[in-house]
């Protein structure tokens, strides 16, 4: 359980980091918080020729209010998002989800850029990026490009990042909504989700005006359920709405069986979570001033 | 090969020629002789190797020794001594919060960080905080009791 040999560089700038990645000819790996990469190294599931440690780069850790969005630097630790008053007021679904991200010691080290790049389909940050329609800024040898979260996640543990590219910033658009909820079931608190849903609602003059819905743990990437959002907004609001919404959500996913849970069980969990998430979000929407 | 200068338990260490692939957990145990930090799963699941890095708890098996260059680290040896236990250690003794003791260093270092960061108003909060640390003697009840008691003492209340 020890990593194979590698070289280690600790560049002071993003440009220098990209140069080191280019020089490694695709054999290099970026080290940020290391909370997903180090287990892979210890198991020797990855054997990079060189580790490019981003932790020495100044100015990549910030949470910034840009009016219609919150910009988060790639090296921002999970723990910083968990305790940020700005995140709590502007991104309530993220704020609610952060305590589900692994355990305290992992949150102290893990970074948003690292979690997105690792692209685990049952991890909270990729799901939050999908939910908020986040814009992910990537830097590579040809400069910067920005890509929508839904296009960033390609498959389980696979993003559209090239080997010589680095995530540098993520912009989360602020939702002008009135009620939200985040629900998750994991085997153990802090473990990866077996199923999870995030719901956010906007109230209009004649009731529910807009909805945002995303799920994870039930497909190879996190999913924003746009058709479920539309169907929810079209629903009559009564005591049966959560039940109807839950059937709609489950009809949109077809999770596979795996070591952790059968597909059928994941659907069952998602149905229950959908119901309670909508109840919570509706209640919060009604309470909101 | 890289040089690593760290402060561990208020003592400065300068170690030359450290292999980049050396884990912080192995560095503490093998290079510095501080065997209080235990090595369990070596992939960040069991929590036995938890130490404080610049005041925050971290898995020593999920950090490279070279990454700790310039950092201040506290291991279980830095908490108290057999003659003078720290407050949290004395609560572990009081409540019999350990059996075989293998998970204990990690439990204590996690507990230190939890006590600093969270109100720990309920047992559920304490269990949530400890969810990243495994005890295979399954002595969780007493560990929770020890931390509950430490949380109350932290606020100057009598348990």
Order of helical and strand elements of chain A: EHEHEEEHHHHHHEEHEEEEEEEHHH
Name of the CATH class of the largest domain in chain A: Alpha Beta
- What is the straight-line distance between the termini of chain B? 52 Å
Question: Can you tell me the number of structural domains of chain A?
Answer: 3
Strand order of the largest sheet of chain B: 2-1-5-3-4
Spell the H/E element sequence of chain B: EEHEEEHHHH
**Overall morphology of chain A:** globular
Low-confidence stretches of chain A: none
Q: Which consecutive residue ranges of chain B, at least 5 long each, have pLDDT under 50?
A: none
Main sheet characteristics of chain A = 5 strands, antiparallel
Based on CA atoms alone, the radius of gyration of chain A comes out at: 19 Å
Radius of gyration of chain B over alpha carbons?
Answer: 16 Å
Write the layout of secondary structure elements.
The complex is a heterodimer of chains A (289) and B (159).
Chain A: E1 7-9, H1 14-23, E2 28-31, H2 37-42, E3 50-53, E4 63-65, E5 69-73, H3 78-83, H4 85-90, H5 92-98, H6 104-109, H7 112-118, H8 124-131, E6 135-140, E7 143-148, H9 149-152, E8 153-155, E9 158-159, E10 166-173, E11 179-186, E12 193-204, E13 207-216, E14 223-224, H10 226-234, H11 241-251, H12 263-287
Parallel strand pairs in A: 1-3, 2-3
Antiparallel strand pairs in A: 4-5, 5-10, 6-7, 6-10, 8-9, 11-12, 12-13, 13-14
Chain B: E1 2-8, E2 11-18, H1 24-31, E3 50-53, E4 56-59, E5 72-74, H2 87-94, H3 104-117, H4 123-129, H5 140-154
Helix pairs in contact in B: 2-5
Write up what this structure looks like.
The complex is a heterodimer of chains A (289) and B (159). With 289 residues, chain A is of the alpha+beta class. Chain A has twelve helices and 14 strands. Chain A has helices at 14-23, 37-42, 78-83, 85-90, 92-98, 104-109, 112-118, 124-131, 149-152, 226-234, 241-251, 263-287; strands at residues 7-9, 28-31, 50-53, 63-65, 69-73, 135-140, 143-148, 153-155, 158-159, 166-173, 179-186, 193-204, 207-216, 223-224. Chain A is globular, with a radius of gyration of 19 Å. Chain A folds into three domains: 7-54, Uridine Diphospho-n-acetylenolpyruvylglucosamine Reductase, domain 2; 63-172, Uridine Diphospho-n-acetylenolpyruvylglucosamine Reductase, domain 3 (2-Layer Sandwich); 182-287, Enolase-like, domain 1, CATH 3.30.390. Chain A has a five-stranded antiparallel sheet. A four-stranded antiparallel sheet of chain A has the order 11-12-13-14, sandwiched between helices. In chain A, strand 8 and strand 9 form a beta hairpin. In chain A, 36% of the residues lie in helices and 26% in strands. The mean pLDDT of chain A is 97. Chain B has five helices and five strands. Chain B has two domains: 2-78, Beta-grasp domain (Ubiquitin-like (UB roll)), CATH 3.10.20.30; 87-154, [2Fe-2S]-binding domain (DNA polymerase, domain 1), CATH 1.10.150.120. Chain B is an alpha+beta fold and 159 residues long. In chain B, a hairpin with a 2-residue loop joins strand 3 (50-53) and strand 4 (56-59). Helices cover 33% and strands 16% of the residues of chain B. In chain B, 43% of the residues are buried. Chain A binds chain B through residues 1-8, 10, 31, 34-35, 38-39, 41-43, 51, 53, 55, 79, 99, 102-106, 108-109, 188-190, and chain B through 2, 19-21, 23, 26, 42-44, 47, 50, 53, 56-59, 61-64, 66-67, 110, 113-114, 117, 127-129, 131-133.
């Amino acid at each position: 359980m020890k990593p194979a040999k590698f070289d280690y560089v600790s560049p002071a700038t993003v440009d220098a980091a990209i140069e080191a990645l280019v020089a490694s000819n695709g054999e290099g790996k970026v080290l940020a918080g290391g909370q997903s990469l180090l287990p892979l190294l210890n198991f020797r599931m990855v054997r990079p020729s060189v580790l490019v440690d981003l932790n020495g780069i100044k100015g990549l850790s910030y949470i910034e209010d840009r009016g219609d969005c919150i910009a988060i630097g790639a090296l921002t630790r999970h723990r910083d998002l968990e305790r940020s008053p700005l995140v709590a007021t502007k991104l309530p679904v993220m704020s609610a989800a952060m305590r589900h991200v692994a355990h305290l010691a992992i949150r102290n080290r893990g970074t948003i850029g690292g979690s997105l790049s690792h692209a685990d389909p049952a991890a909270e940050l990729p799901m939050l990026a999908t939910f908020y329609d986040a814009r992910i800024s990537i830097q590579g040898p040809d400069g910067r490009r920005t890509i929508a979260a839904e296009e960033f996640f390609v498959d389980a543990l696979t993003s559209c990042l090239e080997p010589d590219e680095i995530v540098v910033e993520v912009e989360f658009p602020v939702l002008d909504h009135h009620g939200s909820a985040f629900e998750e079931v994991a085997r153990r608190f802090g473990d990866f989700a077996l199923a999870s849903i995030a719901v956010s609602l906007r109230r209009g003059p004649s009731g529910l005006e807009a909805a945002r819905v995303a799920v994870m743990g039930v497909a190879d990437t996190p999913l924003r359920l746009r058709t479920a959002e539309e169907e929810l907004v079209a629903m009559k609001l009564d005591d049966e709405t959560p039940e109807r919404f839950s059937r709609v959500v489950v009809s949109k996913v077809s999770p596979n069986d795996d070591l952790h849970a059968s597909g059928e069980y994941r659907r069952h969990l998602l149905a229950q979570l959908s119901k309670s998430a909508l109840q919570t979000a509706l209640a919060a929407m009604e309470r909101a001033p | 090969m890289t040089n690593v200068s760290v402060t561990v338990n208020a003592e400065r260490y300068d170690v030359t020629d450290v292999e980049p692939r050396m884990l912080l957990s192995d560095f503490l145990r093998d290079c510095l002789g501080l065997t209080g930090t235990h090595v369990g799963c070596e992939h960040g699941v069991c929590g036995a190797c938890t130490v404080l890095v610049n005041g925050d708890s971290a898995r020593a098996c999920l950090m490279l020794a070279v990454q700790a260059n310039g950092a201040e680290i506290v291991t279980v040896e830095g908490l108290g001594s057999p003659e003078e236990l720290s407050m949290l250690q004395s609560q572990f003794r009081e409540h019999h919060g350990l059996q075989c003791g293998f998970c204990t260093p990690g439990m204590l270092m996690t507990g230190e960080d939890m006590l600093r960061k969270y109100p720990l108003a309920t047992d559920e909060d304490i269990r949530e905080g400890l969810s990243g640390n495994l005890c295979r003697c399954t002595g969780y009840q007493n560990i929770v009791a020890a931390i509950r008691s430490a949380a109350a003492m932290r606020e100057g209340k009598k348990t």
